[in-house]
Amino acid sequence: MTPALAAFVGIGIVLVTVLTWALGWSKRAELDPGLARQRFLEDFPEARIDDLIVATDRASALLWLGGVGGVVYVVGDRFATRKLDRAVVRADGDALIVDFGEYGNPPVRVGVTDAVWRERLHA
Question: How many percent of the chain have pLDDT more than 70?
Answer without folding.
Answer: 96
